[in-house]
Design a protein that fits this description.
The structure is a single chain. With 298 residues, the chain is α/β, with parallel strands linked by helices. It is built from twelve helices and eleven strands. It has helices at 3-15, 18-25, 29-43, 59-87, 98-109, 126-134, 168-174, 178-182, 200-210, 225-233, 243-252, 281-294; strands at residues 48-50, 55-57, 90-96, 117-123, 140-143, 152-166, 192-194, 218-221, 239-242, 256-257, 266-274. Strands 3, 4, 5, 6, 9, 10 and 11 form a seven-stranded mixed beta sheet that branches. Helix 5 (98-109) links the parallel strand 3 (90-96) and strand 4. The longest helix is centred in the first third of the chain and has 29 residues, at 59-87.
């Protein structure tokens, strides 16, 4: 049996789509369809049920994937290990949200550079990042959305605490304890700084802490949390920021936490890879390094 046909079959099985598998393999969709049909003729059994959106493996397809995928992954690992030794340098393509990737992930991964690893980073939201990972543009993705389906697998990396903050000038207008006693209505007059017009961080905080929907609109909107932080420090208004991003400014008094809820809102980050690629030493090493580094992130 042709190993190329099996490789295509396993990729389709994991991707759930001839089109996505074609993108991962660098083939045309008709070529993938032709290879799967050739394999089905050799076996005399259908391997997939064609549907309007993708394909579903038959029981025969599931059995074949279970039996062959580990061996194909092992062959890929042998090949990649050989390339690693010959080239002396490997490149990891990492994607994730700009702030977290810049402040947390990239500094942690620079420890791998002396081992001959190069880094390439791409920034994007969760949807963009996972699409790029699925299509083979990235090796490893950091995302706040847990991927579904069999093409991608994810491991929880860390939780990020969100803090309601403002400059000392705006905090002084509210006064200590007033927000806790009267609720979010006392914030109605404060300008809001956010990353998007929909106020995703503020809305999530309001829902988790106040069990309500914010009535405000964005006064300053900038698609980077670092820009939001600087605007808050400059006195633009209130914002909801990850604690890792604003902890230095809080310690220096450049901004103030307006509330300390008993259960602060959290958001989970995941490390996502294409299924089977953790057999590759480079990707496995990077994931392990990030997981170990995350144990010290508060």
């Amino acid at each position: 049996m042709d190993l190329a046909l099996l490789r295509t079959f396993v990729t389709v099985h994991r991707a759930g789509s001839f089109t996505r598998a074609a993108a991962l393999l660098g083939l045309s969709q008709p070529a993938v369809t032709s290879q799967i049909r050739a394999l089905e003729r050799q076996l005399g059994r259908p391997l997939f049920l064609r549907q309007a959106r993708g394909v579903t493996p038959t029981t025969i397809g599931d059995e074949l994937a279970h039996r062959t995928a580990p061996h194909l992954d092992a062959l890929v690992e042998i090949t990649e290990s050989g390339l690693d030794e010959e080239s002396g340098s490997r490149t990891l393509h990492l994607a994730g949200p700009p702030e977290f990737t810049a402040i947390r992930a990239l500094p942690a991964l620079t420890a791998l550079i002396p081992q001959g690893i190069s880094l390439r980073a791409s920034f994007g939201n969760a949807e963009q990042t996972l699409e790029g990972l699925a299509s083979g543009h990235h090796d490893l993705a950091i995302t706040t959305a847990q991927p579904r389906g069999g093409l991608l697998t994810a491991t929880a990396l860390c939780d990020e605490e969100h803090v309601l903050v403002a400059s000392p000038r705006w905090a002084a207008r509210i006064g200590p304890g007033l927000l806790r006693r009267k609720g979010p209505s006392v914030l109605a007059e404060l300008p809001v700084v956010e990353v998007h017009e929909s106020l995703p961080l503020v809305a999530r905080y309001w829902a988790a802490v106040f069990d309500s929907i914010p009535a405000a609109t964005g006064t300053v909107v900038a698609p980077d949390l670092r820009a939001v932080q600087q605007a808050v420090v400059a006195g633009a208004g209130l914002a909801v920021l990850p604690r890792y991003l604003c902890e230095d400014a809080l310690a220096q008094g450049a901004m103030v936490a307006l509330l300390d809820p008993p259960v602060p809102p959290l958001r989970t980050y995941f490390l996502a890879v294409r299924s089977g690629t953790l057999a590759l030493p480079l990707i496995a090493r990077a994931q392990d390094w990030l997981l170990r580094a995350a144990a010290d992130w508060s």
